[in-house]
Amino acid sequence: MIYTTEIIVNITLKEFIKKLDNADNMKHWQKDLTSFEHISGVPGTVGSKMKLNYTVNKRKIELIETITHINLPHEIYMSYETKGMHNTQKNHFYTTPEGYTKWVIENEFSPTNLFYKIMVLLMPKAFKKQSEKYLLDFKNFAENGTSIQNA
Asked: Nearest-CA neighbor of 80 among 39, 52, 113?
């Protein structure tokens, strides 16, 4: 399953990257994130890996994030591995004529077990809706300092 999401964040590209590139900020815009840890490579470089732990509806999910391409402030690509699913994400950042930041994400989900194959078939909109929620939560954090932790 492949889809694209995008949002305009009303801050400069420089401010945007500073907030996005700080792993400590993830707790302010990634609902259900319980912890993260750097596990290999030089943080913020191609090949570096981070373990992300989420609890979604009392279900624990562990993702391994690997940076596969980086050209900040314009783009960063990552892959995510979890039991039953592989996800690639290509993030592109543009400056709008108003001086704001346009964030475009190309997602590709590839299920590797029957459970996720069924989920992708029956609930494809749920994946896109979650991606859009992360974008909106990041926008609210970046523009207004609004953290999902205070919600």
From this structure: 52
Structure tokens at 128: 């896109």
Distance between CA 103 and CA 120 in Å, rounded? 24
To the question of pTM greater than 0.85 for the whole model, the response is yes
Q: Which residues span the domain enclosing 94? A: 2-30+71-150
Residue 151 has a pLDDT of: 63
Indicate the burial class of 57 (C-beta count within 10 angstroms; 0-12, 13-18, 19 or more): exposed
Instruction: Provide the number of structural domains found in the chain.
Output: 1
Q: What are the CA-CA distances from residue 76 to residues 9, 119, 141 (Å)?
A: 17, 27, 20
